[in-house]
C-alpha cells in the first residue's frame, strides 16, 4: 500500500539549544572498538589465528550513526 500524502500533520519542533557533539565521543569510539574486539565481534588482532573470524570489521566506526543523529537540527 502506497500513501499519496502524509497521513497526519507533523507538529513543529522547537529546540532551544545548539547542536553539539559530546566531548567524550572519541573516547567512546575507542572504548567501543576495544569492547568489540574483546567480545569477538571484530575478531582477533591482525596476524592472530582468529583474525578473520569476526562478525564485523573495523567499518563498525562508519558511518558514525551516533554523530549523525545527535548533530541534526530541526
TrEMBL record:
InterPro entries: Isoprenoid_synthase_dom_sf. This is Uncharacterized protein. It comes from Pelatocladus maniniholoensis HA4357-MV3. The lineage of its organism: Bacteria, Bacillati, Cyanobacteriota, Cyanophyceae, Nostocales.
Amino acid at each position: 500500500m502506497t500513501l499519496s500524502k502524509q497521513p497526519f500533520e507533523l507538529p513543529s519542533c522547537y529546540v532551544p539549544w545548539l547542536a553539539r557533539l559530546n566531548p567524550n565521543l572519541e573516547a567512546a569510539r575507542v572504548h567501543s572498538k576495544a569492547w568489540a574486539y574483546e567480545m569477538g565481534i571484530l575478531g582477533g588482532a591482525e596476524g592472530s589465528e582468529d583474525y578473520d573470524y569476526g562478525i564485523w570489521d573495523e567499518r563498525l566506526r562508519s558511518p558514525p550513526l551516533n554523530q549523525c543523529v545527535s548533530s541534526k537540527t530541526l
